[in-house]
């Protein structure tokens, strides 16, 4: 097989259309510019594989700390979520700049303006995050439209704060909901 042909996206699409069931519509998409549906993914009629043949909805049970009234309201405790940046694929970081959030570097901690004011911090203040797992130092606060009581910073840097235990059902760590405290940055020695 001559892989140099795959420099052209059109050729890649044609091979995919030939070998992947349901993606035959890709074959002529360059000329037709028409949309197509992958067979079996679009429900023309709502059918669900349940006894009642209807969708079942449930409200997930929240852990106890979600119910804590003081998180983010009076204390320096927050729920941390970690996110990827635009210049990142999984743990591979191609660029420190995050064009999604208009940040020049990854040392940012995103915080709701009211939380920022309540703690006496300003946009750009350097802070440390800490919990019983670890410490993340010298993050620059960024005023951001995020839920009060929640803060956000980048993965994988935030892994130093994430417990190794996993959710019993999903078997994943709680990297989107970690209890942490925020304090002014400690002086470097």
Please mark out the parts with pLDDT under 50 across 5 or more consecutive residues, or reply none.
Answer: none
The tally of beta strands, per DSSP, is 8
In angstroms, what is the radius of gyration?
Answer: 23 Å
Order of helix and strand elements from N to C terminus: HHEEEEHEEEE
Strand order of the largest sheet: 1-7-4-6-5-8
* Portion in strands: 15-25%
User: Fraction of residues in helices?
Assistant: 10-25%
What is the count of structural domains?
2
How far is the first residue's CA from the last residue's CA?
A: 59 Å
- In terms of structural class, how would the helical and strand content be classed? alpha+beta
Helix count equals 3
Q: How would you characterize the largest beta sheet?
A: 6 strands, mixed, barrel
Look at the structure and give the CATH class of the largest domain: Mainly Beta
Give the CATH architecture of the largest domain.
Answer: Beta Barrel
Shape assignment: extended
Q: Quick check: average pLDDT? A: 84
| CATH fold descriptor of the largest domain | Barwin-like endoglucanases
Fold and architecture overview:
The protein has two domains: 7-41, no CATH class; 67-184, Barwin-like endoglucanases (Beta Barrel), CATH 2.40.40. Helix content is 11%, strand content 22%. The protein has helices at residues 9-19, 29-32, 113-118; strands at 77-83, 88-89, 92-93, 108-111, 126-130, 135-143, 150-154, 178-184. It has a six-stranded mixed barrel with strand order 1-7-4-6-5-8. The protein has a two-stranded antiparallel sheet with strand order 2-3. Strand 5 and strand 6 form a beta hairpin. The longest helix has 11 residues, at 9-19. The protein is extended.
């Amino acid at each position: 097989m001559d892989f140099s042909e795959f420099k052209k996206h059109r050729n890649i699409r044609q091979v995919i259309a030939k070998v992947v069931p349901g993606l035959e519509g890709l074959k002529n998409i360059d000329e037709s510019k028409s949309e197509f549906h992958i067979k079996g993914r679009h429900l023309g009629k709502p059918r669900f594989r349940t006894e009642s043949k209807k969708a079942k909805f449930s409200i997930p049970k929240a852990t106890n700390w979600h119910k804590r009234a003081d998180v983010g309201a009076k204390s320096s405790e927050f729920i941390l979520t970690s996110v990827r940046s635009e210049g990142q694929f999984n743990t591979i970081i191609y660029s420190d700049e995050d064009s999604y959030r208009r940040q020049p570097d990854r040392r940012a901690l995103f915080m709701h303006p009211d939380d920022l004011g309540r703690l006496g911090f300003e946009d750009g203040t350097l802070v440390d995050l800490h919990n019983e797992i670890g410490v993340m130092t010298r993050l620059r606060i960024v005023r951001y439209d995020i839920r009060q009581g929640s803060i956000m910073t980048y993965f994988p840097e935030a892994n130093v704060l994430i417990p190794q235990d996993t959710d019993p059902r999903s078997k994943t760590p709680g990297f989107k909901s970690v209890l942490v405290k925020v304090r002014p940055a400690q002086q470097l020695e």
